[in-house]
Design goal:
The chain has ten helices and three strands. It is mostly helical. Strands 1-2-3 form a three-stranded antiparallel beta sheet. The N terminus is likely disordered.
Length: 236
């Protein structure tokens, strides 16, 4: 009878799959392990087993830089406003979550058993955070060139599918209300959780008797997601 796999062997399988997704062999595999660890499964004091929140912080900045660089190359004649709307869309929670789903990241995330049963691996905010964390790990291990290769491959469809700059969701929702004679959309904080350094906001927006909700790590991002959710419902 074969002996049961060791903890290191079990941990190595998701890491190997993640390396294939990222197209990079990690010299510091503890970075990748950390990037794939949800805060519910973090083990303080164990190397490489902290939550992915710190790497998410790094990945967020790296992603913004690389997308901005790519946009400047791709749309050399567009002004800041149009480029800013494209950037906001490409780094938005829905896009990051969709990229994570397409790449197969949900099954690789380490989460606490209770959170797993609650479906945390499918939450958009968790998937977006994991995408940024893995990018942060990739940057710290392989440098900006490795991060750039992954971003340009993973974000290619999102980058090319929009011929025109997307309209800001909050602006679009406000215009929808004004064109129909409704009061302006009303935003309110429905819930706030998480530590002070990594809060998660749930925002509710209401207009014309309809409601949409959004969840993100900042009020502004959550408001945008709520507005986008409500716009989709109104248009359908």
């Amino acid at each position: 009878m074969k002996p049961p796999p060791s903890e290191d062997a079990k941990a190595g399988a998701p890491a190997s799959q993640a390396e294939a997704i990222l197209g990079h062999r990690f010299a510091r595999p503890e970075l990748l392990r950390e990037a794939l660890t949800h805060r519910s499964a973090a083990k303080p004091g164990r190397k490489g087993a902290g939550s992915n929140e710190r790497l998410e912080f790094v990945g967020d900045r790296v992603l913004g830089l690389l997308i901005a660089e790519w946009l400047a190359e791709r749309f050399p004649h567009e002004q800041e406003g149009a480029l800013g709307r494209r950037l906001a869309y490409l780094v938005s929670q829905p896009v990051l979550a969709a990229i994570a789903e397409h790449a197969g990241l949900p099954s690789l995330l380490e989460v606490a058993p209770g959170e797993s049963r609650a479906g945390v691996r499918r939450r958009a905010t968790v998937l977006a955070d994991a995408t940024e964390a893995t990018l942060g790990a990739l940057f710290l291990d392989g440098g900006i060139a490795a991060a750039r290769r992954f971003v340009r491959r993973a974000w290619d469809n999102a980058m090319t599918e929009q011929a025109e700059p997307p309209k800001d969701a909050k602006t679009a929702l406000q215009e929808w209300a004004q064109q129909r004679g409704h009061p302006l959309p009303r935003y309110e904080v429905a819930n706030r959780e998480g530590p002070s350094h990594a809060p998660v906001f749930a925002i509710r927006v209401t207009v014309a008797g309809k409601t949409g909700t959004g969840t993100a790590g900042s009020k502004r991002a959550a408001e945008q997601e709520a507005a986008e959710t409500l716009l989709k419902a109104l248009k359908s």
